[in-house]
Design a protein that fits this description.
Shape: globular
Number of domains: 1
Strand content: 15-25%
Bound molecules: adenosine-5'-diphosphate, magnesium ion
Strand order of the largest sheet: 3-4-2-5-1-6-7-8
Order of helices and strands: EHEHHHEEHHEHEHEHEHHH
Structural class: alpha/beta
Number of strands: 8
CATH topology: Rossmann fold
CATH class: Alpha Beta
Helix content: 40-55%
CATH architecture: 3-Layer(aba) Sandwich
Number of helices: 12
Distance between the termini: 13 Å
Radius of gyration: 17 Å
Length: 256
């Protein structure tokens, strides 16, 4: 039975997409069956998985509107070793169209239920907002992975997300919990980052993942080759950290 996780943070540029595609690739590498769902109309996770968003015959948009199943719309990324339910600009329209539909925040959940036996992990890359799209992600998931940079306002930034997750938990999805906070783009030479990292552990305890993702230029270069860093340059420090994170996730779900 697939474990479904959202990668979410309402801030843009914090490393959601990088986390999604590299964790997918890392999990595939350690033998897990993985589906990546791109819920961001920018389609960066789609492109970053080697799937051309402009060439999609069917996408997550069709799945949300009920005109295609996940099996019909997902495509295999041979280079990355996982399945991709892609997104492109068309998805931006879904926000408005969903309003008219019944069970509008549970469309993705219903669609994913059909494929839960096909995968070990489903990872959902969320857009940088707490929109109807993100809500569909949160309603589908067993948990949320929150990538964050250890910067000055990091803790304040989390408040809105934590409140939203609490509300979804109370009203829409009793399964939902924060699986963990992932420290990304980490630079140990910066004293402030160490301090914020310690603060995070103080506040959130074992909700902070052990794995830390370093700032690593190879992770930033990989998307222009249509690959996650883990595939593009497996030896890079950042790629190794994501494979380590994949192992940590496999262990965490055993304890769930
Ligand atoms: P989001 O999806 O939250 O908007 P992205 O994953 O697209 O964030 O990351 C924002 C930018 O930071 C991208 O240019 C990405 O390549 C870069 N980036 C992400 N993680 C790292 C890292 N660990 N080291 C270096 N650059 C990174
Ligand atoms: Mg993104």
């Amino acid at each position: 039975m697939a474990r479904i996780f959202c990668v979410a943070n309402q801030k843009g540029g914090v490393g959601k997409t990088t986390t999604t595609v590299n964790l997918c690739a890392g999990l595939a590498k350690v033998g897990q069956r993985v589906l990546m769902v791109d819920l961001d109309p920018q389609g960066n996770a789609t492109m970053g998985s080697g799937v051309d968003k402009r060439q999609l015959a069917l996408s997550v948009y069709d799945v949300l509107l009920g005109s295609a199943s996940v099996r019909e719309a997902a495509v295999r990324s041979e280079s990355c070793g996982y399945q991709v339910l892609g997104a492109n600009r068309e998805l931006a329209g879904a926000e408005v169209e969903l309003v008219e539909l019944e069970q509008r925040e549970k469309r993705l959940k219903t669609a994913l239920a059909e494929v839960e036996a096909d995968y070990d992990f489903v990872l959902i890359d969320c857009p940088p907002s707490l929109s109807m799209l993100t809500l569909n992600g949160l309603c589908s998931a067993h948990g949320v992975i929150v990538p964050m940079q250890c910067e000055y306002f990091a803790l304040e930034g989390l408040t809105d997300l934590v409140n939203t997750i609490k509300q979804v938990h109370a009203n829409l999805n009793k399964d939902l919990q924060i699986i963990g906070l992932l420290r990304v783009m980490f630079d140990p030479r910066i004293t402030l980052q160490q301090q914020v990292s310690d603060q995070l552990k103080g506040h959130f305890g074992d909700k902070v993942f052990n794995t830390v993702i370093p700032r690593n230029v190879r992770l930033a270069e990989a998307p222009s080759y249509g690959l996650p860093g883990v595939v593009f340059d497996p030896a890079a420090k950042g790629s190794q950290a994501f494979v380590e994170f994949a192992h940590e996730m496999v262990e965490r779900i055993k304890a769930m």
